[in-house]
Design brief:
The protein is of the alpha/beta class. The chain has a single domain, classed as Alpha-Beta Barrel (TIM Barrel), CATH 3.20.20. Helix content is 27%, strand content 17%. It is built from 9 helices and 12 strands. A hairpin with a 5-residue loop joins strand 7 and strand 8. Helix 3 crosses helix 4 and helix 8 runs parallel beside helix 9. The N and C termini lie close together (9 Å). The structure holds iron/sulfur cluster (SF4). The site of iron/sulfur cluster (SF4) has 14 residues, from loops.
Length: 341
């Protein structure tokens, strides 16, 4: 899928980690992945923000591996522990077309930064074979120009995290003190790519006004932030950043579902540094006050939801609850003998 002479995988400097390993020869850097695309699951997902899921659900494609490796990742089975299997170009295209055939509103590529080059090739081939729905890039935003240049003409909607603007927390939770600088610059570039929110209504005609009930985002940026218990000043800084740089051009999605996940292998796991409690009601209400102070109304926030019942388990054919997710593909399904690329 990628010609070795033009590959950013050898030596790999695709992301800010700049590991310089030869992924074409099978080596994995911080992300743990060779040049092969590995996936864990694909499903019609109804747990995303309303303009992402719409009426048909979002076509979520979960990529194995991660270049950031948060100490509190709820998807640690696939992001840090390597669960998943290799898919060739033909199977990747077939998965996306199957999601479209099942009514997905978009193709939602989850944590694909380290695999951006091979994903970009797959998206181009899928477009040639009839993929028409928007492509959504759902990432940590720990990505720089090498990846963003690949996405520019391929991603319609960006769903980046802005996890923190505090370099000390970047070091503690991700081993990346440059995360605030890299992620904020990446999001500003995404806003340059998609400077306004465009909505796809049921008549399939994008419009630029306020969304009608049930409208789905056709183009734009939604910035996600997970509130970390005990680190509210970090959340206040993110809200202020959104107010100064993105308000009126993007939506803010505040997530309260922080839970401590103990998984993760060896030195890549920073789970010991992560708080081991849930967000409490007083913290939640303080954050809601900041939204009011900064006049932020366009966006989403979850009610606190302590507990881990909702955590995905990628050992199951449907990693999520049946209420949230309709499985379309799973890594335990054997690879077909042949699918034409
Ligand atoms: S994509 Fe992976 S191997 Fe390449 S620089 Fe980033 S973490 Fe390292």
């Amino acid at each position: 899928m990628i010609a070795p002479e033009s590959s950013p995988y050898s030596p790999c400097v695709l992301c800010p980690r700049r590991c310089s390993v030869n992924r074409l020869a099978g080596a994995g850097g911080r992300c743990g992945e060779s040049a092969a695309l590995r996936l864990a699951s694909a499903s019609i997902h109804r747990g995303e923000e309303p303009p992402i899921g719409g009426g048909g659900g979002s076509g979520a494609v979960f990529v194995t591996g991660c270049n950031l490796g948060c100490g509190f990742c709820q998807n640690y089975q696939i992001s840090r522990d390597g669960m998943g299997r290799t898919v060739g170009p033909g199977e990747f295209i077939a998965i996306m077309l199957a999601l479209q055939d099942r009514g997905a509103e978009n193709i939602n590529i989850v944590t694909g930064t380290h695999a951006a080059a091979v994903i970009a090739c797959g998206l181009d081939l899928a477009r040639d074979r009839g993929l028409k729905i928007p492509v959504l890039w759902n990432s940590s935003a720990y990505e720089d120009d090498a990846v963003l240049d690949l996405l520019r003409d391929r991603a319609d909607v960006y769903l980046p995290d802005l996890k923190t603007l505090d370099p000390r927390l970047g070091t503690r939770f991700f081993g990346a003190d440059d995360y605030p600088r890299v992620a904020s610059a990446a999001i500003l570039r995404m806003l340059d790519f998609r400077p306004e929110l465009r909505w796809k209504d049921s008549a399939d005609s994008p419009n630029r006004g306020a969304p009608a009930e049930g409208s789905v985002l056709a183009q734009g940026v939604i910035i996600r932030h997970l509130i970390i218990p005990g680190y509210l000043e970090s959340t206040r800084q993110v809200i202020e950043w959104f107010h100064r740089h993105a308000q009126g051009r993007a939506l803010l999605s505040l997530m309260t579902q922080y839970t401590h996940c103990a998984g993760g292998r060896g030195e890549k796991s920073l789970s010991g540094a992560a708080p081991q409690r849930y967000l409490n009601r007083a913290e939640y209400e303080r954050v809601m006050e900041w939204l009011t102070e900064y006049g932020i109304e366009d966006g989403f926030y979850q009610e606190p939801a302590p507990g881990q019942d909702w955590l995905p388990n990628f050992n199951r054919t449907n990693p999520f609850s049946s209420r949230l997710s309709l499985p379309v593909w799973h890594w335990t399904v054997p690879a077909p003998d042949k699918i034409d690329p």
